[in-house]
Amino acid sequence: MGSRVAALVRDGFTLHTAGPEQAPTGRFRLGGPALLGPKDDWPESEDGPMTLLAVMDIDALAPGLDVVLPQGAGVLNIFFAGNGDRYDTFSGDFVFESEFDWKVVPADPETAAEVPPPPTALAPPARLVRAEPVPALPDPGRAYSGPKEDREEDPQLWEAFAQVTARIPEIAGADPNEWPFLNVPEDFTEDDDEDGHRAFGWPWPMQGGPFPGEHRVLLLQLDSKDGYRWADNGMITFDIDAAALREGDFSRVACYTASC
Q1: What confidence tier does 62 reach under pLDDT thresholds 50, 70, 90?
Q2: How many C-beta neighbours within 10 Å does residue 203 have?
Q3: Which of 7, 50, 181, 222 could form a disulfide with 79 if both were Cys (CB 3.0 to 4.6 A apart)?
Q4: 245 in helix, strand or coil?
Q5: From the CB of residue 123, how many other CB atoms can be counted at a distance below 10 Å?
Q6: Cα 160 to Cα 151: distance, rounded to the nearest angstrom
Q7: Could you give the CA distance from residue 188 to residue 184 in angstroms, rounded to a whole number?
């Protein structure tokens, strides 16, 4: 049990657009062209070409990760199609509504080539991304808050983890400016400003999921910033079953959107 509880503290990354003097993390970016293999086409939904949200440079993140990654998936292209997606000329944001369709397309960096969006696609401009490593903790209380079919039924694991996290304020000196308060659910601190993009680790909690699961792996969570807006200033999250990730089966990626 002890090793399983310890494994719930995961390696993750906060994601930030790279400034003029900042080096991006490999080829990680928001929007722009996709990085697709020679046999891959730009995916479409029934309404036309999907929007490329991000190209994740998994090879660049791998040294700081504690999950088993598949071969041949050095980059991941994250595509999305929602209901009523549009470009807001007033705010300059790309606005996305509830999830309708999505697809994660892996590629081998050795053979992948840049592919521009089709003329009819909603095409956010490329923004280079830098990833900063951070330890990430789940909210044990939310392990019981999801629909019964989505829960991982192991109350002993989550009760043990809750006992460990109850001591965090004592260990950290209750200073919200120190780790781990910058990366824990609002239950642990009065500073409940949970925002920002992130990869791996654990997502910020949202209405409707994803709910913490020992065998689920966060791939990407995007906030309403950097030209993206999810409905009423919400977030979008992509996660996957750990076994599917090991096997490279990205057809089993789940997508969740939530807003205020």
Answers
A1: very high
A2: 26
A3: 50
A4: helix
A5: 18
A6: 17
A7: 7
pLDDT band at 1 (very low <50, low <70, confident <90, very high): confident
Global pTM reads 0.87
The secondary structure of 115-178 as a DSSP string is EPPPTTS--PPPEEEEEEEEEE---GGGGGTS-GGG----HHHHHHHHHHHTTHHHHHTT-TTS
Question: Which of 10-25 are b and which e, b meaning 16 or more Cβ less than 10 Å from the residue's Cβ?
Answer: bbbbbbbbbeeeeebb
Q: 257, 230 in Cβ contact below 8 A?
A: yes
- pLDDT tens-digit map of 162-214: 787 777 667 656 554 555 544 554 443 444 445 789 999 988 877 766 777 88
- What DSSP character marks residue 59? H
Rg over CA atoms, the chain: 18
Tokens found for residue 108 = 């081998």
